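ARCHIVE CARD
CATEGORY: sequence design from structure
SOURCE FIELD: tokenized fold
FIELD CONTENT:
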């Protein structure tokens, strides 16, 4: 998992249809808040033609991962937003999360009530088309991930809560590894700088090899660790600390 550097606090983006999964989303948001993770403010509201495409994309980009919840509705198709006559808003959000390299945690809801609110409208002239597109959407997600099944908002919240620690441990491990590699590179470059300085003090012309730049002219001023790591790592440590408590 790649830790997001746009914010100093871990955050998530919830992607799903809205009307049928409103309670499910609320439960997910509650779990995330309890664990000290931010939920993108925009994501709490349903996407509509008034919702800015830029805001949605920014919300996904500035999140550490995306939680995808799929019930039995394909959802709205808004070409004015997605630029597609076949992608639902949820499918479009998912595609953009993948393009941005965001980890996706997928959940499929089972045992869904027969209440029409939980299904695509059969009187819709595009109903048959939507059902085919919906099955394709689920197939794509299943081929890329390992969706967990749940039957109630409470069960979804419980499964998500149990998975968060392992998800963030993976993120911390990657972050720690990258920091170690950076430190090793700094040590290597400092050693090279010392060698070049020594040659210069002895009156020998300092020559940079083809694979190395002239570090005397470049200096080490730009070799700093990426900003945001400390805050992100602190947030992750805090998250794991609460789990142990």
């Amino acid at each position: 998992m790649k830790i997001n550097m746009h914010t100093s606090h871990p955050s998530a983006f919830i992607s799903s249809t809205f009307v049928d999964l409103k309670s499910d989303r609320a439960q997910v948001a509650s779990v995330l808040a309890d664990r000290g993770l931010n939920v993108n403010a925009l994501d709490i509201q349903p996407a509509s033609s008034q919702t800015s495409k830029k805001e949605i994309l920014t919300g996904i980009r500035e999140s550490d991962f995306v939680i995808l919840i799929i019930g039995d509705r394909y959802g709205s198709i808004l070409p004015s937003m997605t630029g597609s006559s076949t992608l639902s808003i949820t499918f479009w959000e998912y595609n953009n999360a993948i393009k941005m390299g965001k980890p996706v945690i997928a959940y499929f809801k089972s045992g869904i009530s027969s209440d029409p609110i939980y299904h695509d409208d059969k009187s819709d002239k595009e109903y048959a088309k939507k059902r085919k597109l919906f099955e394709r959407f689920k197939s794509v997600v299943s081929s890329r991930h390992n969706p967990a099944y749940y039957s109630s908002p409470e069960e979804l919240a419980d499964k998500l809560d149990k998975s968060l620690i392992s998800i963030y441990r993976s993120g911390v491990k990657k972050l720690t590894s990258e920091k170690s590699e950076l430190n090793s590179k700094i040590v290597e470059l400092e050693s090279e700088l010392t060698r070049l300085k020594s040659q210069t003090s002895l009156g020998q012309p300092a020559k940079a090899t083809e694979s190395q730049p002239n570090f005397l002219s470049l200096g080490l001023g730009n070799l700093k660790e990426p900003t945001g790591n400390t805050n992100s790592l602190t947030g992750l440590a805090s998250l794991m600390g609460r789990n142990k408590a």
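CARD ANNOTATION: Residues 178-244 form one domain. The two ends are 24 Å apart (CA to CA).
SHELF: design records, drawer C
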